[in-house]
Specification:
alpha/beta; two-stranded antiparallel ribbon; 12 strands; 35% helix; globular
């Protein structure tokens, strides 16, 4: 019997985008080879979901082109609407508000997706097949554009998570509500991305599990409604946050026990650099991160096989 797939997704973007400033640096490029080496040690193949500023970084293009050439990973598309050309302001300060791509007019969404796809394909001399939306914001129009551009796989869905209380445009409705979306891979219905359909676009949702039992979540949800709040239940992600190896193993284990044929990990490229994120502030934090990754990858290597998103798509089709 085939081992399930282990898919590593890295949102490959500028340094510390959690800060509100207009100058984005890409120093985290220098810290990616160490992570790539760790992945290769366990025959895992990361997917570098790349946004505009990283696609402009010559050192990153050289690094990722080598990964592609050696067949040791994949480059996909990641789009942050507020700084990805063509630039047309949506709010009084897009850099501060970081509006979701799906909040822009459809002609601008289409232009941004087309621009980023061409930029990546020109720079890396390979067809873009995989994608993750910036700030996890996705909808039917966006999905149809990916199909138009020849993408095969999306990984924007975060099961159980409702992003509607996370603002983009202050006059908008917030992000996408994934609380009732499927938890396993499915071909998207372009009329309703929460449902399986017959489009060629495969959705590969993030590996996320509820932190508490169904009854406890139900009670907490009822309490929140009484207080007029709508928020997501507490969740555990297959994502490092410092010292959470056991929780990551728990997510992977539960996901596989529920019958999934893959587990999906994510992190931002900036999180491999000291001070590149609020989570890993210094070299000591980074060493602790790598200690966690070594333990996690060693454990997963006995249970799953490394695949890129495009390889997983082909595996599903066979």
């Amino acid at each position: 019997m085939k081992k399930p797939a282990f898919i590593i997704t890295i949102d490959t973007e500028g340094d510390n985008l959690w800060q509100n400033h207009e100058r984005i640096s890409t120093e985290n490029t220098r810290f990616l080879p160490r992570f790539q080496s760790l992945c290769e040690k366990y025959a895992f193949k990361p997917v570098y979901l790349t946004n505009y500023e990283m696609a402009q970084d010559a050192a990153y293009v050289e690094f990722a082109s080598d990964v592609i050439r050696r067949g040791k990973g994949e480059v996909g598309m990641h789009l942050h609407a507020w700084n990805s050309p063509p630039l047309v302001a949506l709010t009084d300060d897009d850099w501060r508000h970081k509006p979701y791509l799906i909040e822009f007019p459809e002609d601008q969404i289409k232009a941004k997706v087309a621009f980023m796809t061409k930029l990546l394909e020109d720079n890396f001399q390979t067809k873009m097949l995989s994608h993750r939306a910036g700030r996890w914001a996705f909808n039917e129009f966006y999905a149809s554009l990916l199909v138009e551009q020849g993408y095969l796989v999306d990984c924007s869905v975060t099961p159980h998570v409702n992003w509607s209380s996370s603002p983009g445009n202050p006059e908008g409705a917030g992000g996408t509500d994934y609380s009732r979306f499927p938890k396993e891979a499915y071909f998207i219905d372009l009329n309703d991305i929460a449902k399986a359909g017959n489009s060629p676009l495969l959705e590969v949702p993030m590996s996320i599990q509820l932190k508490h039992s169904g009854m406890l979540n139900h009670i907490k949800s009822g309490y929140d409604k009484l207080r007029g709040k709508t928020r997501s239940p507490s969740t555990l992600w297959l994502r490092p946050s410092g010292g959470n190896v056991e929780n990551m193993k728990k997510v992977a284990e539960q996901t596989l026990k529920q019958g999934s044929d893959y587990i999906e990990f994510m992190l931002h490229s900036s999180e491999f650099m000291p001070g590149g994120s609020p989570t890993f502030k210094n070299e000591q934090d980074i060493e602790r991160l790598y200690d966690d990754l070594e333990k996690l990858f060693s454990w997963i290597s006995e249970r799953a096989q490394g695949m890129t998103l495009a390889e997983y798509y082909q595996w599903k089709m066979n």
